[in-house]
Amino acid sequence: MTNPSHKAKGRKLRLVGASVLxxxxxxxxxxxxxxxxxxxxxxxxxxxxxxxxVAVVSPRTGxxxxxxxLPGTIDAYYEASIHARVGGYLKDWRQxxxxxxxxxxLLAEIDAPELDQELVRARADYATAQANAALAALxxxxxxxxxxxxxxSQQSIDEHSAEAEAKKAAAFAxxxxxxxxxxxxxxxxxxxxxxxxxxxxxxxxxxxITPASGQELFSVADTHEMRIYVHVPQAMSxxxxxxxxxxxxxxxxPHRDFKAHLDTTSNAVDRASRSLLVELLxxxxxxxxxxxxxxxxxxxxxxxxxxxxxxxxxxxFRRHGTELAVVDAHDRxxxxxxxxxxxxxxxxxxRSGLSASDRVVDNPSDSIAEGDQVRVAxxxxxxxx
Length: 385
What we know:
efflux transmembrane transporter activity; Helix Hairpins; conserved putative lor/sdh protein from methanococcus maripaludis s2 fold; elongated; RND_pump_MFP; MdtA-like_HH; Beta-barrel_RND_2; Elongation Factor Tu (Ef-tu), domain 3
């Protein structure tokens, strides 16, 4: 006969086992559910990350004046490369780069012993020619004095007169050669052609100077006023007026504006670049503008109130033309072909293909395509990036 205490103990063990089994099943189910939830959450996050975030701008219309920024090259008002006219050796140089010189100031001297000897010979030749001419003239006068005595023939008289003229011409030639050599002697002194600054010295004491080689010795620039050359697009050329004021900004002076005015234009459009060459003049009393400097030239031009403008960074250049990426009401990309107008540097006009209510993607990626789903970060106003 079974002991009641044993039965009670068996029931207790079965209850404990069932509880453990239920707990194990619950833990397993909970783990599976948790993993499923995490997997679903990860899938949602991956999908969200796959949608690119874009910044959009609103097109604006032109108002007041528009700043057109173009690159410019600054040159000296005058600039001369100085070459030697006589051969020899450089005896001495007096001015180095950066020196401010006056017109006619000595830059260097050339030692030309061969030229010096040629000058001595030319003086002797001229003296000889003068003596021969004087003797021939005296002889001709004596023969002419005998003309009335009929003791000499007219032929002899004419011959001596012609010889006197020939000797006189030879004296003139000798004098011209002497003057030429004296002028060349003056070129032994290398002088500044005008007041300015020495921008280059390409010779040194003892260097062989050969005029035929075309060797540049010095370069002098007149920098009291600077010429600035800018290539202006053809579309903007009609808005330029002589005397208009522009601002010039240099990389080395980022917080300073230099004023210049439009002096003249080439009155011709370059066939290759379709641009007009414009010459500006800028005062340079403080000498901060240097020849060869790059600068940004800012033209203040009237804006067209009937034309929309967007940042230049929004343009997409594709094989079939220029496009803008526009975000529709469902945050999907629509590519719009557009016709460009005037280019103001950071801002460009859109002649057709765009509406004022469009949301334009700024700095779109090259891979952006029609119908892409995007997330809009924040709208920017007035078409500025």
